[in-house]
Amino acid sequence: MTRNTLTTAGVLLALSTGTALAGDTINVLTWEGYSDPSFISKFEEQSGCKVNATYVGSNDDFAPKLMAGGGVYDLITPSIDTTKLMIDLDFVEPLDTAKIDNWDKIYPKFLGLDGIQKDGAYYGMPYVWGAIAFMYLDSAFTTPPTSIADLWNPELKGKISLWDDKSSIYVAARKNGDMNIYDLSDDQIAAAQAALLEQKPLVRKYWATAGELVDLYKAGEVVISNTWAGYQSGLLAAEGVKVTEFIPTEGAEGWMDSWMVVKGTPNTECAYKFLNMQLSELGQCGVANVNGYSVANPVAAKACMSPEQYAALHQEDPAYLDSLLVWQPLGDRFEAYTNAWNAVKAQ
Amino acid sequence: MAAIIELENISKHYSPTIIGVDKVSLAVEDGEFVTLLGPSGCGKSTLLRMIGGFEEPTAGTIRLADKDVTWDPPYKREVNMVFQDYALFPHMTVGQNVAYGLKTMKVAKSEIADHVRDALTLVGLYDKVDQRPQQLSGGQRQRIALARAIVRKPKVLLLDEPLSALDAKLREQMQLELKHLHEKVGITFIMVTHDQGEALVMSDRVVVMEKGRIAQQGKPQDLYDHPASPYVANFIGTTNFLPGQIAAGGDDLIRVEIGAGTISARPDGARPAGGVVTVGFRPEKARLLADGEGAQNILEGRIAEVIYYGLGLRVAVEIGNGERVFVDSLLPDRLALSAVPVVGAPARVAVEPHNVFVFEGSVAP
Amino acid sequence: MTLIRRNLAGALVLGIPFLWIALFMLLPYGIIVTYSFWIKTYPTFKPAFQFGNYLTLFTDPQYLQVMLRTLKIALLVSLCSFLLAYPFAFYLVFRCKSAALRTWLYMAVIAPLWVSYLLRAYVWKTILGTEGILNSFLMSVGIIDQPSDIFLYNQFAMVVTLTYIFIPFMVMPIYTALEKIPHNLTEASADLGMGPWRSFWHVTLPLSLPGVAAGFTLTFCLSFGDFVAPFLVGGPDGNLMANVIATQFGAALNWPLGSALAIVMLVVVLSIVSMSDRLERKGAAGGV
Fold first, then answer.
1. What pLDDT, on a 0 to 100 scale, did the predictor assign at position B339?
2. Which of A24, A164, A268, B145 keeps 20 to 30 A from B197, CA to CA?
3. Is B81–C287 a contact, with Cβ atoms under 8 angstroms apart?
4. How far apart are CA A208 and CA A230, in angstroms?
C-alpha cells in the first residue's frame, strides 16, 4: 500500500514536472516544417538540447493552447497579426537581442513592425515571411487571371475557394478599392462583408488548412483561390498539378512569423541556442527548403541558397517586400473583422 | 346439424421427416364444443393455427361453412382466436381492444360502443372498459380476450390453451364460465389443451391427438370408459397396466393370464385365446377387499405406499411379480381415516371384469 | 469492523462515479455557465455578470440563422435515418427468415461504428466529389455527360454523410423495439380482420414508437452537435452551431459568447431528450 502510493506519487510528479525539470529539452508550439528533423537533428547534436515540436493548424490555436495552462511550451511562432495578442495577453517575455548573434542582419522592415515590440523591447524574432498570393489552375485559364475580381467571376461559379480566415475581409476590401485593410471603418467592413456575401454562391468551399486546399485542386473541385505563397503550390507541383501563383493588381497581404519566448520558461539557455540556430544558415535555409518560404535573414540566405532559390524567394527584392501589405495587429478592431467574417459564413 | 368446419386430409410436413400434422380429417358441427387434446408436440396447436389461417397446410382442404378457406389469410376468415397469452394490445384500453375487430366489420360507428358494452357485460368486465390490459389480472385479461373475439360473432371461436396461464383455482372457475359462455352465445368452439380434466369438463367432443394424427375422438365419457389404446387410456385419467396373455377367449367374458395370477375381463369385442394383450383398469374402479370378502378378480399383494390427497387415498399395492397397481378410495367420512391401510400389510385388490380394458399387444405406454 | 469495511466499499463504489461526474461533467458545465456571463474585452475577457452574450445570440441574426440551419440539418438527418432504418429493421425482425442473414445484415449496419468517424466522412468525399465515384458512375451509364458538382460541399452532402454515420443509432433502438413486440399481437390483429398494412399502422408502428423516439433523439442530438461534416463535406453555407462555437473559442477568442452558445445548445438538446423521455415513458406505460 505504502509502496504503491509512493510509486503513484512518483509517476504523477514525473508527469507534471517532466518538461520543466529537463533543462535540456525545449518544447516548441509551431507550424509544421519550422522544426523539421532535416535541420533540427543537427542542432540537437551540436547543442545537446532536445526539441519537442507540437504543431498548430492556425494562428487561432496559440492563445487557447497557452491559456489552457502554462509551463508546457517554451517557444511559439505566431504570425505578425497574432504576436501583439501574445504580448498583450502577457504570454511572452522580452527578448535579450544581445544574445541573438544575427539580430542586426534581419530586414529592417520587419524590425520596424509594431506587432513584435512593446515599450521599446522586442518580443519576437522575425523568422520567415511570404505573401498571401493568389493561385490558379493552369489548365482552367486561357487568359491568366490578374485581379482579385476574378474570384468574383460568375463564370467560375463553384470553382472558387477562399481562405476561411478573417483575411477574407482584407481581400474583399481591396476588391472594393479600400486599401487601408488593417484600419477599415465599420462602413468599409460592412461593404467587404456584402462583397463576400455576393461571392458566396460562387464559392465551392472555404479552405481551412493547407492540405485541404491542395486536395481541392487535386480533386478538380477548385481552379482559383488565395494561397500561402510557395507552400501549397510546391505541394501541388510535387503531385503533378500545374498551378501558377500571382500577385493581383490589388496587391497582396504579407505575413511574417516570429519566434517568441514563452514567459517564465525554465529553459532559457536552450531557447536562445535554438533562436540563434533558427536565424543562422542552418535554420534559415532549413525552413526555406522544407516550406518554400522566404526568410528574415537575407545574409544567411545568400550564403546557403543557390542564386536561383535566392531570387525565387525574393530575398533581394526590396520592391516586392515593400509591395506587400504586411499584416498588422488589429487590436480592438479584431472583433469587428472576425464578426463580419463569421456573419458571412453564418448566412 | 351441418358441419361448420371440415378438415380433409390436412397435413403439415415441415420436412419429409419432421411432420407436424398428418392427414387429419375432422368435421365439427355448428355450435359444438370440440377440444383437441394431447401432449405438446402432438400437432394440436398447429392444426388450430391452420384453421385460423396463421399457418398453411402442406396438403388437404379446410372448409368453413362449405367454403374452401385453405389459402385465405386470417383476416378473411370468419373465425376468431383467443391466444394462449391473450395477445391484448398493450397500447389500447380494454374498450379499444374489444372495438378493434369491429373496425373492419360493417358496423355503424354509433353501434360500436353498444357492441363493446354487450361483449364486456357478457364477460362481466364492463367496468374495466377504460383501463389498460396491463392493469388487469390474468383471469380478467382472459375474459377481455374472449370478449374481443366474440364481439365479432365469428362462425367459429378458436381457443389456444386459453386457461394454461391461470392458477389452478381460477382455471377451474374459468372452465365452467367458458362452458356457460359457449351455451349462451351458441358459437362453435374449438379449443386446444393438454389438460385432460379441462377437456372432459368443457367439451361436447374430445379429439385426442398423437404424433400428428387423431388417436381417438368421442364424448368425454366414451373416451374415459372405452379408450381405444393404452395411449388414450393413459392420457385421459390414470390406468394400471398389466401385460398378459389370453388364457380363455370369447366374445363376452375372457380370462387373461398375468404374472401375478389371472384376471377376468369383458372387452368391447371378441378376443381369441393365446393373444398377447395388455389389461388395464382405473384406480378408482378398483377397491381393497376387507378380510373375508370375496370378488371375481382378486390380486393379492402388500401395501407399498399410501398417498393422501384430501379427497381420498391412493394406495400402491405391490402384487405378485413385483408390479405395482394403484387403488383409489374416497374418504366420504372424516372418521374413515382411522381405517387407513398400513404400509407393509397384506392387501387384496378387486376389480369387476367390466371395468377391465383389454388392449392388443404387450406394450404399455 | 466488517460493517465499516462494507461501508467503505460502498462509499468507493458509489463515490468514484460520483466524483467522476462531479469532476468531469458538473464542474465543466459550471465553468461554461460562468463564462457565459463574462464580458469580452481585448485581449481576452473578464469576469462579469451580464446577459449581453445571450442578448447577442438572439439579436444578431447570424446566430439565429446558424441555429435554424443546424436544427434543419439535424431534423433532416433524423428523418432520412428513420425512413431508411425503419423498413430495414422491420425487414430484419419480421421478414428475414434466416437467422444468419439477419445477424449478417445487422452487423453490416452496425460495423461502420467501429471505423473512425473521420475515415467514414472522407469516404463520402471521394464518393460525392466532382471527380468522384458517383459522378463517374452517372457518366458511365449516360445519365450525365459532364461531372456534376451538386453532390459535394453543400447541405445535401452533409445530410447524406451524417445520415450514413449516425444511422446505426436509429437502427438499433428500432430493431430492439420491433423485436420486443410479441408476434401474436400482429396475428391477433390479422385475426380481428386487419390486413397487413392496417395491422402495421394500428399495432406494429404504435408499439415501436418508443424505439423511434429513442432513434430520433440519438441521431438528432448527434447531428445537432456535429462539426466535422461541415468541415469535410459542407460547403460555404454549411456552418453549424458547433463550428460557430469552435470559432468563438478559437479565432474570435470570445469564450463568453462561445459559452453562451454552448449553453443554448445544451438547453435545446436537453429539452429534446426530456421530450423523448416523456414519450418513451408514455410508450412504456402503454407498452409491452
1. 66
2. B145
3. no
4. 17
**Cell numbers at A346, concatenated:** 453564418
Do A91 and A262 form a contact (C-beta atoms < 8 A)?
yes
Q: And the C-alpha cell for C66?
A: 446558424
B and C: number of Cβ contacts within 8 A: 70
Cα of first residue to Cα of last residue in chain C, in angstroms, is 46
* Structural domains of chain C, ranges and CATH numbers in brackets: 60-286 (1.10.3720.10)
Eight-class DSSP state of C137: H
Flag if C239 and A88 touch (Cβ within 8 Å): no
Rounded to 5, what percent of chain B is helix, strand, coil? 30, 35, 35
Please give the CATH topology (third level) of the domain spanning B238-360. OB fold (Dihydrolipoamide Acetyltransferase, E2P) (2.40.50)
Report if residue A321 sits inside a domain: no
With cut-offs at 50, 70 and 90, classify the pLDDT of residue B106: confident
**Cell numbers 374415459: residue:** B224
**CB proximity B309 to C under 8 Å:** no
Whether omega before A78 lies within 30 degrees of 0, making that bond cis, reads: no
Rg from Cα positions in chain B: 25
- A123 and A269 together in one domain: yes
User: Is residue A140 domain-shared with residue A161, that is, in the same domain?
Assistant: yes
Distance to chain A for C236, nearest Cα, Å: 5
Fold annotation for B3-234: Rossmann fold (3.40.50)
- CATH number of the CATH domain containing A55: 3.40.190.10
Rg of chain A on CA atoms, in Å: 21
pLDDT digits (tens, 9 = 90+) for A309-344: 999 899 988 788 888 999 988 888 888 999 999 999
CA distance A28 to A92: 13
- Residue of chain B whose Cα is closest to the Cα of C282: B91
User: Pseudo-torsion of CA A29, A31, A36, A42, nearest 10°?
Assistant: -50
Burial of residue B342, with CB atoms counted within 10 A of its CB: 0-12 exposed, 13-18 middle, 19 or more buried: exposed
In a domain, A1, yes or no: no
Domain around A225: 130-253+329-346
Of B214, B236, B213, give the one whose Cα is nearest residue B226.
B236
pLDDT digits (tens, 9 = 90+) for A98-142: 999 999 999 999 999 989 999 999 999 999 999 999 999 999 999
Cα gap A313→B192, rounded to integer Å: 95
Of B52, B105, B132, the CB nearest to C191: B52
Q: Cβ contacts (< 8 Å) between A63 and chain C: which residues?
A: 44, 253
| Most C-contacting residue of B48, B56, B89, B161 (CB-CB within 10 A), to test interface | B89
The β-bridge relationship of strands B213-218 and B261-265 is unpaired
Amino acid at C5: R
Give the nearest chain C residue to B89 (CA atoms).
C185
Residues of chain B with CATH 3.40.50.300: 3-234
- The verdict on residue A157 lying in a domain is yes
Integer angstrom CA distances of residue A148 from A176, A203, B232:
10, 14, 100
In eight-state DSSP terms, residue A170 is H
pLDDT, tens digit, 9 for 90 and up, residues B29-48:
999 999 999 999 899 999 99
What is the rounded distance in angstroms from the CA atom of residue A1 to the CA atom of residue C213?
Answer: 50
Short-list A88, A91, A84, CA closest to A114: A84
Contact between C193 and B104 using a beta-carbon 8 Å cutoff: yes
Are the CB atoms for A340 and A190 separated by under 8 Å?
A: yes
Which secondary structure element, helix H or strand E, spans residue C171, and what is its range?
Answer: helix C168-180
A180 and A82 in one domain? no
Q: What is the chain B residue with the closest CA to C283? A: B91
Query: What integer pLDDT is reported at residue B260 of this predicted model?
Result: 75
Cβ contact A338–C251 (<8 Å) = yes
Q: Which of B84, B89, B105 sits opposite C193 (nearest CB)?
A: B105
Question: In this complex, do C287 and B75 lie within 8 Å of one another by their Cβ atoms?
Answer: no
Whether B and A touch (3+ CB pairs < 8 Å), yes or no: no
